[in-house]
Amino acid sequence: MPLNLQALSGDWYEMGRVPKTDVMKCLVVSVPQKADENLELHLEYISTLGGDIQRVRETVQFPMDNFTKNSIFHLFYSGSLSIIITYKVIYTDYKHMTLICGYAGISPVPLIKLLSRQRQLDQRSIDFIQAQLLSGIWYEAGRVPNEDVMNCLNVSVPATVDEQLDLRLEYLSRINGKDQVVKETITFPWDNNTQNGIFNLDYNGPSASMSVTYKIVYTIPKVVTFICGYASISPIPLLKIFSRERQISQQTIEMVNSFLTAAGYADDIIWTDQSFARCNAAVSGYWYEVARVPNMDILKCLNVSVPAAVDKDLELQLEYISSINGETYAKRETVTFPWDDKTRNSTFSLEYVISGNINVSVTYKIIYTDYTNVTFLCGYSGISPIPLFKLLSRQRQLSPTYIDFIKTLAEKAGISRQIIWTEQSPDQCNDAVRPTTGTLAILAISILWMFTKI
């Protein structure tokens, strides 16, 4: 996020923080309107370190380098122990609140600071912040008990709630020895229990009925959430660990294993595999390209068919219409990727030669998918400094809500003028199939064309 001192200038009050330490309070950060060689932030707070209460005023300086200009701040502390702390502004509306996340080299716990223009946040703002921190996709990283009847579980949490909380679940259910993709929505009334992170579920099956209660016991926003529970028909406690990333860190695994060993449940946990290699069945099916960067209009009506199973290679079936040199042709082709570690972790590399001696390499990575609606891919080429972006949708047309959301993100990232919204209507995309240049060559030509315009 580019640093906008003019918009950020003024006093900001610390409203919340992680970790939950009480050695500093009443923190106020004063941001200047401009900076020359160094950015000077004036801090005022009450320190209770060592049991002594005293008011502290100090100035923290940051060189105006590329890090600071992109809202990344490095702090170095030297004493009996040297510490490096990095903070980054991940969200601000400039007028009301700013959210800063960071990490220290000596601690696995992430650092979070919530700053406000006002000395007090109203309850509506607090509820909004908490919802934003929990909203989005969470991947199940581990669970107790270690029953292998469900895999690849991800839960989509909404950012806003009206009268009820709707959680969208997607997972692979093991039925008769085969995995089947299941998509369902679980609804909870927005009552005191739900608002306090307590979720009650009732199951009525053909042979038995039971009730299950879960409670969020600990969460590190944007990182990991721990949920404990119990079922009416089982003495074994329930545990679910959700992560923002598909793969949880080894450090977190070791911490949880130590806790379960001490509690006597070390043999009851199963660590789940959320890799693309294991869970690609949830991504399988048709995807339509609805937007891309750069805004070259030489390829339209692209749709990608992803298989539900992979053997030695991942084969993607592509259909599109090429309009290179003013001629319009429809094309079907297969793009093959080796089923190696890169592909299994959603990274796709393309390498090819055009014009006999020009080597072009392109790498794409899935950075987000909710499986049922949209998938975002970002990438880069070895011959161009301009980033690549593709937005794929399960439907031919995105809803206005999604389009407005993408436009807002693009505006903040400064790439709104580079996006082209592609045509996917059936009457425009049902041309007869004829031989033409392959999609790899089309991509290479477009990148070369773009490079000559820089």
From TrEMBL:
Top-level taxon: Eukaryota
SUPFAM superfamilies: Lipocalins
GO molecular function: small molecule binding
InterPro entries: Calycin, Lipocalin
Family designation: Belongs to the calycin superfamily. Lipocalin family.
Protein's name in the database: GH18206
Organism encoding this protein: Drosophila grimshawi (Hawaiian fruit fly)
